[in-house]
Amino acid sequence: MQALNIAVLTVSDTRTEESDTSGQLLVERLESAGHRLAEKRIVVDDMYRIRAVVAAWIADPEVQVVITTGGTGFTGRDSTPEAVAVLFDKEIQGFGERFRALSGEEIGSSTIQSRCLGGLANRTVIFCLPGSTGACRTGWDRLLAEQLDSRHQPCNFANLVIPGRGQHG
Questions:
Q1: Is 169 among the domain residues?
Q2: Among 23, 91, 148, 149, which has the minimal tally of Cβ within 10 Å of its Cβ?
Q3: How many domains does the chain contain in total?
Q4: Alpha carbon distance 117, 56 (integer Å)
Q5: HEC string of 5-27?
Q6: How far apart are CA 7 and CA 37, in angstroms?
Q7: Which residues does residue 43 pair with via DSSP β-bridges, in sequence order?
Q8: Comparison of pLDDT for 85 and 168, the residue scoring more
Q9: Cα separation, 117 vs 128, whole angstroms
Q10: For residue 89, is pLDDT > 90?
Q11: CA–centroid distance for 137 within its chain
Q12: Measured between alpha carbons, how far is 106 from 70 in angstroms, rounded to an integer?
């Protein structure tokens, strides 16, 4: 497996580094899988602040993957999809669809309120997960671990962001 540089962004008006269990879970999972943490940040749920952080990571050639957690629901200031989707060169429709299918096994019909999404921008793959630790566990364990593993067949996103691979199409 080829290690990827992954940035993690927690979107929350209330979480701190000490209380950010979702971001911590993602960092633990990616490091356990052999990937490198490029950067971890917490930003308030403000569309323009979220967009600025994600856009900077997309522009950074050292960051290959961005994973956000939080701000994907319908309540209050949830604005991660609006902040991030406009940055995509291509949306990964199947990511949100598959996540909701898997999440439905765990939380039933409540999964329809998840607006998680994924996309590609500037050879960076971006995944926006809900803010709950359970949702991050489901997203990583059941989707991202395989899709960010360069050995996973028949296809994976790792080979699209590793320099020198996946440049056709």
A1: no
A2: 91
A3: 1
A4: 19
A5: EEEEEEECCCCCCCCCHHHHHHH
A6: 6
A7: 11
A8: 85
A9: 5
A10: yes
A11: 12
A12: 18
Does the model's pTM come out above 0.85?
yes
Residue 13 in any domain: the answer is yes
pLDDT digits (tens, 9 = 90+) for 10-58: 999 999 999 999 999 999 999 999 999 999 999 999 999 999 999 999 9
Residue 168 lies in a domain: no
Determine the Cα angle at 12 with ends 9 and 15, to 5°.
95
Helices and strands (DSSP H and E) totals, the chain:
7, 6
Given a cut of 50, whether residue 168 has pLDDT beyond it is no
Residue 122's nearest CA partner among 160, 152, 148 is 160
**Scanning the structure block, which residue is given the tokens 């949702």?**
135
Share of the chain above pLDDT 70, in %: 97
Place of tokens 């996309």: 119
C-alpha separations of 109 from 41, 70, 96, 100, 103 in Å: 31, 19, 15, 9, 9
Nearest to 12 by CA among 66, 71, 56, 52: 71
Tokens 């960051």 identify what position? 63
117: domain CATH number is 3.40.980.10
Containing structural domain, residue 75:
5-161
What is the band of 166 on the pLDDT scale with cuts at 50, 70, 90? low
